[in-house]
Design goal:
- This protein has eleven helices and eight strands.
- By secondary structure, it is of the alpha/beta class.
């Protein structure tokens, strides 16, 4: 990535979704954040995934001047306790005046991963939607084979908007989220030429509906991803990082036939519209 960094330093990006608290960054977390800054990523939003990480996410955002969201990810609902909802309310009450707090998240539904209790996911999702409504906060949504069910709740219990993270639904579903005040997150998955539907969405959705993200350390862009065959041969899976955002964004800009500068300005503006309190560069 270092070879691309200087090219992008005229533009500042907001990575609207990066799990900087993940164990994959334990060895070099500060260096990862510094590399992202050097690459032109001026701000990161760190969404929590489980109660055990809430305080760590808050501390990380404060350390680096970034932003955070608090919530329970659907993949973590098997081990979550019902009482975690009360704990989330209590912590949000404590930090609601913190300018680094921007949303409730990462929350949502995952109907792709096998073995998860759908009804338990839905209970946590709907409880957290109500928390967001009560605190007047936007939400960062995990959307995986679950757009219609997520939308059903949002129509019944509207929130002040937010971001549909790693969106990969239909054009009709995209429009439904947009009509409810949401921006749509695009990241490393859009860099794969075989992702025809996703690349078409990135090219044709209204520019004012897009935000950029990495989901680091996950959703590796194609230049980092290693195949199952490569991993079987002993090659480690590549680790995504927020420093990859400018190169991912360059591909989105090319799909839309606009300048990287125009995409940076638009998506940063969109992110500030979706999440309260993000900085202006």
């Amino acid at each position: 990535m270092q070879g691309h960094a200087a090219h992008f330093l005229n533009f500042m990006w907001i990575d609207t979704h990066c799990h900087l608290d993940a164990a994959e960054f334990d060895a070099d977390r500060n260096a990862v954040r510094a590399a992202a800054q050097a690459a032109g990523v001026g701000h990161i939003v760190i969404p929590a995934v489980t109660r055990a990480h809430w305080r760590e996410v808050i501390a990380l955002a404060h350390r680096h001047g970034d932003s955070y969201a608090l919530g329970i990810h659907p993949l973590y609902t098997p081990h979550a306790q019902d009482s975690d909802i009360g704990a989330l309310r209590a912590l949000l009450d404590e930090v609601q005046s913190d300018p680094h707090l921007v949303a409730v998240g990462e929350i949502g539904l995952d109907f792709f991963v096998p073995g998860l209790d759908a009804q338990r996911q839905i209970w946590f999702y709907e409880q957290q939607i109500q928390v967001a409504r009560d605190f007047g906060l936007p939400v960062i949504l995990h959307v995986r084979k679950s757009s219609d069910r997520l939308l059903k709740t949002l129509r019944a219990r509207p929130v002040v908007g937010g971001i549909a993270h790693a969106f990969n639904g239909s054009a009709q579903q995209a429009q439904a989220f947009i009509e409810l005040g949401f921006k749509l997150g695009f990241g490393g998955a859009v860099t794969y030429e075989r992702a025809l539907k996703l690349r078409e969405l990135a090219a044709t959705l209204p520019l004012e509906s897009l935000v950029m993200e990495t989901d680091a350390p996950d959703i590796q862009p194609h230049w980092i991803y290693t195949t199952a065959q490569e991993r079987a041969a002993g090659q480690a899976q590549g680790r995504n990082s927020p420093a990859e955002l400018p190169r991912i964004a360059q591909e989105v800009a090319a799909l839309r036939n606009i300048s990287v500068d125009a995409l940076a300005q638009a998506t940063s503006h969109n992110a500030r519209h979706a999440l309260r309190g993000l900085p202006v560069f």
